[in-house]
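Hey team,

Filing this mostly as a record. A colleague (T.K.) asked me to run one chain through the structure pipeline before their review meeting, and I want the input and output archived in the tracker in case anyone asks later how it was produced. No errors, nothing strange. Just documentation.

Input sequence:
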Amino acid sequence: MKLSVIIPTRSRGRYLLSSIGSALVAADNSDCPVEIVISDNASEDNTHEIVNSFSDKRIIYRKSLQRLSMRQNFEFALSNSSGSHVLFIGDDDAVAPHGLWLLKKILEETDADAVKWRVVNYIWPDPETGKPGNLNLRIQKVAASRSAIDPQKLLKRICSGRFRSYQEGVMIYHGCVSRRLIDRVRKHHGGPYFWCVCPDVYAAMQNIMMAKTPVQKIDLPITIGGESPASTGASAVRERYGLVKESSTTVRQFVCEYEDDPYQGKLGPDHPSMTLHMLDCLQTASKVLDVPLDIDKRQWQKKSVSEISSFSPEFQQKCKEPLNDLLAFESPLVIPHSNVPRKKIYREKKQPAHLDFKDLKIRIQPFKLIFSGGSETANSMSAAKLLDEILDIRRFCSSSGVSWTPFIWRFLEIHRRAIKYQHSR
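Output structure:
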């Protein structure tokens, strides 16, 4: 077994430093071969120097000489990996110190085509607003429970519209997929593994259709998802809800880079609805893989309208025609308008507050732990270390496999460790 941790990046060296560092720590603890593939999408900052500063043979650095779309960069990265199992993370994300060790145990125990886990979100400090780093932990979502998911039942549930987000799919981004599944997909249609504007969403849909073994899920964070001030996804979200005046440079570049990409679905890169992007990926995968689907159009319309109705009027208009097109409705889509006039919710950024965030602040609530400030949340690597310590990931695994603990004992143990950590400071 060999694990490939793939990190696509572009001009975000200050965040990539922590992402690589966390992957190396996890590789040291993994007890199996690991390679860390850095796919540099024509960076114009010090990314190359950041990567070279590690001087570690497990790091494979590949740089594109010209700007690629996100999909092309994902495909480029995958083509430069050689592991038997592959996982992608972002350049502002991190791997838990014992995350790869836990992943290896699950794969040894099950030989699964895919493994899913709970991704805990971390928000990077924002120097412009003075906000510190922040890590929110919902205890009931990291209960260390295990389950095996039938991919066909999962596909049926998604087609019927009974899901919360695309992350319920079989992810390769903050999820792990076997090389044999990747090869099976490529051999099936002779084309690339990734398609569409959202390659991670497309992969999550196609993997459900092609998985041959039950998908293993564990409610522990093998990786954490970072949101930095430079995040493309976060910038797009702020734009569609009217939280910013205009598109960021990052979002505009993202749109331009898809102009010449031949492997797209029906939706363009400037489309704002993630629900519709998921539907587009689902339908495109069905066509590419020749897998017929029975999609509940009314339920998908209901979910889409629920999301779209909260957009600013400009973005609501962008969604009407694509939704009718994707669901093939003859009558035009009607999005209900609120009786309350929409207020302009954009606010100018405040100057950095003169606050002292040198010390970690911990708020302990019945079902949530909130960590803010201090060196522990200064970057994704330190946040991943803090999370691993609080959850004590390795303790809940044994040499013979991954153990299971009743929720009440797990709940009390996490609270006890958080209180102990707070008092030790």
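Quick notes for T.K.: The two ends are 40 Å apart (CA to CA). The chain is about 40% helix and 15% strand.
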